[in-house]
Design brief:
With 272 residues, this protein is of the alpha+beta class. It is built from 8 helices and 10 strands. The strands form 3 sheets. It has a 5-stranded mixed β-barrel. A 3-stranded antiparallel beta sheet has the order 8-9-10, with no helix packed on it. The protein has a two-stranded antiparallel sheet with strand order 6-7. It is elongated. The C terminus is likely disordered.
Length: 272
């Protein structure tokens, strides 16, 4: 497959590289190995997106027909292959789906395709070299110049000091809150936003705050009046096959103001 991919024209390689980064990866199991796969419809949408239209040195894809033609060309160079998706590979429904390569390779929007192209590997190589460099630097720490070792020592002491200061503030604010709950209820929090999901500066603003529980919003009298009026309105209960409804109305002319009467009216059936 790698040999076929190397023989692909530059434009086809650019399309495969674009799709590898644009498509949302699904993880499947092919011969016991986990690989990424996608649905053909998602690839067509990716080629019709504005991001692809802005690319240079790629085949044109103005409509679905052109997009399918381009994707068929990418499939011909084994960047991805058509597969049949089965059930979960494990006992859980969220386990990777079982994939099986189909001999007849053709692109279709409703089919699934598994990736055999990982894209540019320079980021992986760069990350590996960086990890090796960091490990070597740590191992060779005794050979560092005295000034660099002293700088690292000060830096580590500073980081430990910041962590210790954070825990000290958390303990002090808790003790102060317990004291103020007893002395001046409902209590005072120092740095109330310290553990909130906010920025670093916002965590220390405001300096203190009363621990007042948030009040639940109560319905105002204005909101209650419409509800009462709605209860006084006529209520209609329709029947499915009876062709009649019962409307409940106020009996204002009755000698008992609180009593109600019912009125039955015939209505035509909708099926007629």
């Amino acid at each position: 497959m790698e040999q076929q991919q190397k023989q692909a024209p530059p434009q086809i390689k650019n399309v495969a590289q674009f799709l590898r980064g644009a498509l949302k990866a699904r993880v499947g199991a092919l011969n016991g190995k986990r690989l990424d796969y996608f649905k053909g419809k998602a690839a067509v949408k990716a080629l019709l997106s504005p991001a692809y239209q802005k690319l240079k040195d790629v085949p044109p894809a103005k409509d679905s027909a052109q997009a399918i033609t381009v994707l068929s060309a990418v499939n011909a160079f084994a960047f991805f292959l058509r597969v049949q998706r089965g059930g979960p590979s494990g006992s859980s429904s969220s386990s990777p789906k079982i994939l099986q390569i189909i001999q007849e390779q053709k692109f279709a929007e409703e089919e699934y395709f598994v990736w055999f192209y990982e894209g540019p590997q320079w980021t992986t190589y760069a990350g590996g070299l960086l990890m090796v460099a960091i490990m070597l630097a740590g191992v060779m720490f005794p050979l560092w110049p005295p000034i660099m070792r002293l700088g690292v020592w000060y830096l580590s002491i500073g980081m430990l000091g910041l962590i210790g200061l954070f825990f000290a503030i958390a303990i002090v604010r808790l003790i102060f809150y317990i004291i103020t709950v007893v002395v001046a209820s409902p209590g005072i929090w120092i740095f109330p936003q310290l553990f909130a999901d906010v920025g670093f500066v916002e965590s220390f603003i405001p300096l203190w705050e009363w621990d007042i529980p948030k009040k639940k919003k109560k319905k105002s009298k204005k909101d209650e009046k419409p509800e009462k009026s709605e209860k006084k309105k006529a209520k209609a209960v329709s029947t499915n096959g009876g062709g009649a409804f019962i409307e409940e109305v106020d009996d204002s002319a009755s000698s008992r103001p609180q009593s109600r009467s019912a009125r039955v009216e015939d209505v035509p059936d909708e099926d007629d």
